[in-house]
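User: I'm new to structure prediction. If I give you an amino acid sequence, what do you actually give back? Let's try with this one:
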Amino acid sequence: MMPIHKAIGVLLLPIVVLISDHALAENQDCVKSFELVKSQGNDDFIALPHTGIELNSMHDTHQICYRGEDVTRWAAGAGMDVTSGVNGVFKNGSVAFVTAHQRLKNGKDYSAGGYRSALILLRADERTQHLTRVVLMTQQPDADPRKSIDDFHITGYDTFNKIVYFQTPAWATSDAIYSFPLTQAIQGEKPKLKYLGPGNIDTVMNDLGFSDSSKYIGNLLVSRHEPVPGGRVNEVMYLEDADGKQICRVDTTKLYRLKPDCI
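Assistant: Good question. You get back a string of structure tokens that encode the predicted 3D arrangement of the chain. For your 263 residues, that looks like this:
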């Protein structure tokens, strides 16, 4: 269910600035991480070291640190592994959304389905600094791929519209894309999901400081596989709005993540 991966080249520097210096690491020393965020006045920062170095995988993570302690196992839940997360962009990092799924054994593969998964809210109490954990949703199997949620994987956050995006396995060549607004979920309420369609999120267009891209803020770049004559399948990139409505097909031969060119 992993999203497509494309090299980002010159986009790496803006990403590092966006998600902070201590975020890009497979594993981190939680004590050193806490010393860093404490020096910046963010004692309650929930640190998620991101394992993805590309723009469309920047929410991949397998570790959670809080106030110098590794709280990954507690946050994921018994027999579960953390798979993705988003933080640092709301409540000064004292709130995070993370996803987790069941740790499979005996050589089983996730493609077979039938395992436990969860969307989880982590929140630091402003008064006591105690970290709380709320399971917002678990898997919801359905015969209709457009309604079935077998797993959760956060693939984007829209800072302008305050929307979190995630994907779940659905078809052989693509995931199903969903979104939910931050407002209710950040209070621990079950999020109101919106189904956007099939595909894989490549980029959520946020403000990276480039004037040419400002008019695209809040839109999505979504990759889809489409059949072509001869029985082949092509990967096509679309620019879409926050409701999943297609705006245009995008030329990917240029720096399309900065300034999408419609074709």
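You can read the tokens as a compact description of the fold. Here is one thing that stands out. Confidence is low (pLDDT under 50) at residues 1-25.
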